[in-house]
Amino acid sequence: MQGKPVLDQLSPYKQGKQTKEIQEEFGLRNIVKLASNENPYGYSNQVKESLSNNIPALNIYPDGYTSELRSVLTTKWDINQNQIIFGSGSEEIIQLICRSFLLPGSNVVMAIPTFPQYKHYALIEGASVTEVPTDANGYHDMNGILKAINEQTKIVFLCSPNNPTGTVISKKDFEYFMANCPEHVLVAFDEAYKEYVNDVTDVHALTYINRYENLITMRTFSKAYGLAGLRIGYGMANNKIITTLDKVRGPFNTSSIAQKAAITAIDDQEFIERTYRFNKKVKASFESFLDSIGWKYYDSEANFLLVATPVSGMEVFQYLMENGFIIRPGELLGAPNTIRITIGKEDEMKELENLLLKFHQEIMKV
Ligand SMILES: *Cc1c(COP(=O)(O)O)cnc(C)c1O
Asked: Within 13 Å of residue 206, how many CA atoms lie on the same side as its CB?
């Protein structure tokens, strides 16, 4: 059996080696995974307690309208109940957007490097993809993206903080972009790491969903909230966009456990603040270390850092893996000669610094 032709060009998502495999292969006792931007501090204790005390009835289908979480989030963000849609991770929102708006021959514009799933889902729908390189500092080239838009362009994906560079889109750049972007183009604004942002000039995109009929913004519980394993995220836009996406959405696409955990997690903003504070502190200290060995990195407002490497990212990746650290080589992210490192806990990062220092000293000798 042959799938549709475009699938010949795509491969299934290749996840990194599993911790256990690496442990066995290199005879390591302990592995630190800093590859997927997960929260190293876990998740809220309130969620732990709530889930162990009363598990939802698993024989009953979940609330397909996600009523309770909907009510909590629309109150939090001061939007209408019909301006939000839930997905099995924000990943599914990206998929729903592509399914709902793209035809074969449509065009989609995005930065490179950026989150690879935008391109993947666009190609599946038969769309062409125009990738506009970020500037030398890893920021979206807003003018370049505007220039790349044509009659066929249906979606522009923007990511702030951008995965993998960590750079944010400023309010000023966003407003300039929206003022100049044609109305036939849906702007899909991914804010998966918004809770980590410290830079006050960054845009709060959801405050624009009433002003622009062609804007959707996406959030997730997978990153700062630490609930990646439960798969829940959401999109916010005007009701017309949401209704369109809702026709494509599966009726029970988020589980009852995920809905319940998300409600409890929102209630514990102290956990989010702590996560934010720890990340900021450990990131700053890791940046000073990189400065001390002269390795450059991008301005990240997220819980990861894209670091330029003096040799290929694959080589650094291999070395670190053999020593018990899993990171992402930039070669797999469209950013050769870099590595993307999730900011872990303080002691883990100290250990990583020692390894990088040793690596740096070894290559400087030759
Ligand atoms: C991790 C990530 C997502 C997807 O997260 P979900 O687990 O599917 O909610 C979306 N966008 C970006 C940029 C990410 O890094």
From this structure: 19
Pocket-forming residues, ligand 1, beta carbon under 6 Å: 37, 89-91, 115, 159, 163, 190, 192, 220, 222, 228, 233
Q: Whose CA is nearest to atom 9 of ligand 1?
A: 89
Q: Which atom of ligand 1 is nearest to the CA of 114?
A: 13
* Closest ligand 1 atom to Cα of 223: 1
pLDDT tens readout for residues 178-189: 999 999 999 999
The pLDDT-based confidence of 366 (bands split at 50, 70, 90) is low
Ligand 1 atom 6: the closest Cα is on which residue?
89
Query: Percentage of the chain surpassing pLDDT 70?
Result: 99
Mutation test of ligand 1: which of 110, 121, 222, 328 has the most ligand atoms closer than 8 Å to its C-beta? Answer: 222
Whole-number Å distance between alpha carbons of 131 and 118: 11
* Average of per-residue pLDDT across 135-140: 97
Q: Is the pTM of this model over 0.85?
A: yes
Contacts of 187 (CB under 8 A, 6+ apart): 155, 156, 158, 177, 178, 181, 212, 214, 215, 216
CATH architecture of 16-43+270-364: Alpha-Beta Complex (3.90)
Which one is the CATH code of 58-267: 3.40.47.10, 3.40.640.10, 3.90.180.10, 3.30.200.20?
3.40.640.10
